[in-house]
Amino acid sequence: MSLSIKTLILVVLIVIPTIILTFLASNLIISKSFEKLETEKSEKNIERVLNIIEANVESLHLLNRDWSNWDDSYEFAQDKNKEFIEINLTDSTLINAKLNLIAFFDPEGNLVHAKAFDLVSQVEIDVPDYLAEHLVQDKLLAGSDPGDDRRGVLATSGGLLFVSAHPILTSNGEGPSTGILVMARNIDEGVAASISSSAELPVKIIPNPAGDQNTDKLSLKIVDRNKVVGYGVINDIYNESSLVAEVEMDRGITQEGSRTITYFLYFLAAIGLFSGILSILFMRGTVLGPVESLSRGVAGIASAGNFSQRVGVRGGGELAALATGVNQMLDALEATQGRLNVLMSNLQGMAYRCLNDEKWTMEFVSEGALALTGYQPVELIGNKRISFAEVIVEADRKNVWAEVQKSIKVDLPYQINYRILTKEGVQKWVWEQGRAVGSAKGLRLEGFITDVTPRKKAEEALVVEKANVEKKVEERTAELAEAKEKVSQGWLQIQKEKAKLVSSINSLALGFVITDGAGSIVLTNPAVDKILGGPAGAEWTFESLQAVLGTQYNLKEEIDLCLKDPTKCVPKTVEVKARYIEVLICPITTPAAEKRQTFGVVVIFEDTTEAKLLERSRDEFFSIASHELRTPLTAIRGNSSLLMDQYGETINKNADMKEMVDDMHASSVRLIKIVNDFLDSSRLEQHKIEFKNVVLDMGNIIDGVVRELDPVASAKNIALKFTKPKGTVSTVGDLEKVVQILTNIVGNAVNYTKVGGVTIEAGTDGGKAFVRVADTGVGISPTNQTLLFKKFQQAGERILARDVTQGTGMGLYISKLLAQGMNGDVYLEKSELGKGSSFVLALPVAGQAKQVI
Question: Quick one: which H or E segment has residue 579?
Answer without folding.
Answer: strand 579-589
